[in-house]
Fold:
Amino acid sequence: MAITMAVNERYDAAYLVNGSVPVKGFDIQYVDYAAVEGKTVADIFSDQFNNLTYDLIDWPFTNYLIAKDMGKPVIAIPAFPTLFNPLRGPMVNRSKGIKGAKDLEGRKIGVFGLAFNPATWLRGMFQHHYGVDFDSFQYYENEPNSMTGVDFPRPDRYKVERTQGIMKMVSEGDIDAVIMADGGIAPTDTLDRLFPDYWSEIQAYYDATGILPTNSVVVVKEETLKANPGLAKAVADAFAEAWARYSQDAADDDEHMGLEVAELRRRGFFPHTDGLEANRKSVEKIVQYAHEQGFIKTRFNVDDLFAKV
Structure:
């Protein structure tokens, strides 16, 4: 019987989906979760949390941490299909006079899920590297999102109003800024990036921490792993090979999660090495941020989050 894996058919994962890099020894049935009829990516992510629909999934890292902390029978494989830096993603209404991160204090902030991965990373960056009091934010949480229907910890420190249409709200000035995934959107007449020179901010964070953040991780049901000895290593090996090919093959004018490949190469981020050791600092940091922000009770040891390969 085929093992199901939900991924987005892009970047390194495309090499697995198109068959050029096999998961050796296993029959994998791929589902491109960006192309499931009648469902959004957010639907797929929340369905996985509630129903464990797929044997394996390329999942945002905070989704995995929260699931693990809540006792879901899943474990990660040390394969990280996407890198990013959320400092490219925040967009601000040009009329609001927001010139830097500190100007966000006390503002109305739209977010595609209170605990979604970019927001969790950004709050940690804002706190530790920009001195921002993110408890001062008034959040407008777009519904549905990747944690819709999930009863995860939502500390009282966060002032949250659930709503819809936050992109329209920020464009019309009803809210001041929005935290976006995948590097945000191109600036418009009404919206600009919080950090127009985002590469300077990305480089400064890397220089301070040694981290270009991991965005997602491959997560497997424990029962699937138990029933298929060797699966974790085969998946990790396949993604490592796919990453090596992709980061060599990608054209300079391509983008990876909104980041220009030419610039990733110039700054030494490509070619990228997959696997736990190459990404350990990033995993340690997102565990720290998620724990500090109250979304997980356990500050996990990194090795306890991953299947042995």
